[in-house]
């Protein structure tokens, strides 16, 4: 009798009505808002692939899993992603959704040329970090949280090479990635943690000579089954 009573209490909590995710995706419950396309549930999964520093390869890996590039929407979702990273010992960086908009990239280049360096926090208009500095594939994730995790300003990753024709070929890191972090203590020791810090890395993968980082996985998201 007691057992039956307990079952009665426990079963509804894990009822078959819970949405399900495909294998290797984890379900996250979301608060419906305009900014996440009123998404009440989402599946996040980290997938391994060759040369996913190349944005189109990362995109293709997610597509293969019937998903899109994605992001954690809040610290709870980041914790879930971090648990998967630790459990599977996945090496960082991990490709995330989000890429500098071409128009804002042009603005960053113009800033470098005139030495009026672009600052994403004070930039007026569309290219402010709070507006449309980035373009995203996934419209079912509110990107406010992940934008707040960007470690360095988008205006500080640029460079150029001088070409024979006299044109300075400009480039900047433009793809969002989850990177590792070290916390330093005053006694000189440090510990390593996945704290959700993101950085911009090149979008061209192995072909990008500036990209010293080797990605082997990408975060994908999709609707539950
Ligand atoms: C799912 O995860 C398991 C365990 O990490 C792995 O062996 C398997 O290859 C993954 N499947 C896919 C489709 O990525
Ligand atoms: C937005 O949400 C609706 C309702 O869940 C869904 O049918 C639609 O596919 C979503 N849009 C995109 C681009 O995923
Ligand atoms: C993606 O969806 C298609 C069509 O529903 C299905 O045949 C295929 O197995 C799915 N791929 C994966 C990796 O789940
Ligand atoms: C985790 O991965 C790192 C590098 O990818 C490797 O050196 C280490 O041995 C791995 N640890 C475990 C427990 O597999
Ligand atoms: C998959 O991930 C593991 C651990 O991060 C890595 O050692 C391996 O090379 C990756 N495989 C591919 C195909 O990238
Ligand atoms: C250094 O400080 C940290 C934080 O206070 C502590 O956890 C760690 O044990 C210390 N390491 C040494 C070698 O004293």
Automatic annotation (TrEMBL):
Q: Which InterPro entries match?
A: CTDL_fold
- N-terminal signal peptide: 1-16
- Judging by the UniProt lineage, the source's domain of life is Eukaryota
Q: Which key words tag this protein in UniProt?
A: Signal
Q: Looking at the keywords, is Transmembrane helix present?
A: no
Question: What's the protein here called?
Answer: C-type LECtin
Whose protein is this, by species? Caenorhabditis elegans
């Amino acid at each position: 009798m007691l057992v039956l009573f307990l079952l009665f209490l426990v079963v509804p909590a894990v009822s078959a009505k819970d949405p399900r995710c495909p294998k290797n995706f984890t379900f996250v419950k979301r608060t419906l808002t305009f900014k996440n396309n009123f998404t009440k549930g989402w599946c996040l999964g980290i997938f391994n692939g060759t040369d996913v520093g190349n944005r189109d390869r990362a995109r293709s890996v997610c597509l293969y899993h019937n998903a899109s590039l994605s992001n954690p929407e809040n610290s709870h979702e980041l914790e879930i992603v971090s648990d998967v990273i630790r459990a599977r010992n996945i090496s960082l960086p991990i490709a995330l959704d989000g890429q500098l908009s071409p128009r804002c990239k042009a603005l960053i280049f113009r800033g470098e040329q005139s030495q009026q360096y672009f600052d994403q926090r004070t930039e007026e208009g569309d290219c402010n970090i709070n507006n449309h500095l980035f373009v995203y594939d996934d419209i079912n994730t509110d990107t406010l949280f992940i934008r707040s995790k960007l470690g360095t300003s988008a205006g500080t990753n640029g460079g150029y090479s001088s070409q024979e024709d006299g044109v300075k070929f400009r480039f900047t890191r433009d793809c969002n990635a989850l990177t590792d972090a070290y916390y330093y203590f005053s006694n000189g020791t440090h510990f390593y943690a996945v704290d959700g810090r993101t950085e911009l890395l090149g979008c061209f993968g192995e072909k990008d000579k500036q990209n010293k980082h080797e990605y082997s996985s990408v975060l994908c998201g999709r609707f539950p089954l």
